[in-house]
Give the backbone structure.
Amino acid sequence: MVSILALPAMQAEEANPYYRIVTYAVPKGTNLEASGLAVLPDGKLAVSLRKGEVWIIQNPQAEPATVEKLGYKLFASGMHEILGLAWHEGALYVTQRSEVTRLRDTDGDGSADEYQTVGQGWGVSGAYHEYAYGPVFDREGNMHNTLNCSMGKKWAGAGEEGVHPLWRGWSVITPKGSTQATGFSAGFRSPCGIGLNAEGDVFATDQQGNWMPTNPLMHIRKGAYFSHADSLVDMKRADSPIPAPEGKQPDGITVAEAMKQVPHYTPPAIWFPYVKLGQSPTGLRCDETGGKFGPFEKQLFVGEFVLSGVNRVFLEKVGGEYQGACFPFISGLQSAVLTLNFLQDGSMVVGQSNRGWNSYGNRPFGIQRLVPTGKPLLEVQKLESLKDGFRFTFTRPIKPANWTLTKAQSYTYLFTAKYGSPEVETQPLKLSGWQLSKDGLSLTVKCANLRAGYVHEFELPEVNAKDGSPLWHRLSAYTLNRIPAE
């Protein structure tokens, strides 16, 4: 056990009436850059650190969250830039820069004594940007990881891999029973969050930049291509699941046009409007707490780096493909969010590190816990697309309001090698026929100018529950890849 001398914890504070923040004390001398969180069957919390260690917190629900009460214990060390952690079939799995490692404590002394390579097969040249994220296990037991495209100076001794590191800008799959990863989906820039939804489908976040006009959430599946051109070279490989395209990728068209023109292009399920809904999405986690965390069961929560917070995502399938809406949730935590998970009591634990980059907050790293206060909240619980408009569903019955005060617009982005994109082809939404259900829980609106391939953004007017409490967040943005037929 480490020394109980610790950095002082920030006092737990009320960030809002609905979720109080508990800040974990950090063992003195430990840079707790939490890059992965895994809840163990006995309720303990495993935490991976970016600089290559795994710690076990014995009592993650302890309050006050002092080092003594939390009970930190070093479990494993000596690894290279861990960016993900999972508990699977009785062991911890960490994704390092060059492999996935299984950690086991075979003698029961509380420390790992077996480090076994269980996933490998992607290139590492030494360029700083070659991060690897994961692992995530699908329902068949296959392992998924995501890989940054390569940027920066490469290591001179890397041989052919130094020319083009294998599978960079791809997600890779390691089939159950194998240790060899192979390309699965392509077109990523910096896909630093990977996780499952309630149905067991794999999703990843990515970062605005070249070929990424703003931040997306993508549904990973075999053969999908998400736009970043650095991954095209590996499509020439015999084992690529995506045929190599002919000619150069179009540059400067809109995303809506790319959906029609670019072979195998798969648009994101969600676009996060830049700044308005974050600047750098990270880890993601599905709420399967059974309502303990709030009225968001089976929705995704997504970490936000720059704004040091968490956003929320509702997904639905239209035409057999995922699309949906994103909403603000919490911002202004102590440091950039890298990873999140839910403890057994239904509270959310958030792992943080700013890695020396820019983010809001007064600390460079740490862990915080979001605990529901039990106060009923009024929020847009989900936003669904209709063939002629949208349906808002609220968490509580609302009073009638002047819906004509709603601010609403649609826009798309440029599909381009330039860094990011402004919102383009913007036009106001032509809304009419607002109708509030008798129970006050759902609100439908007709829209005369729906556009497939465009984000439809809403800022509702001031809305109140029947007891007078206000709507917590008024902003929402629906990514309408397909207009429902019915």
Remarks:
- Helices lie at 67-70, 160-163, 255-261.
- The radius of gyration is 22 Å.
- The first strand starts at residue 6 and ends at 7.
- The first helix runs from residue 67 to 70.
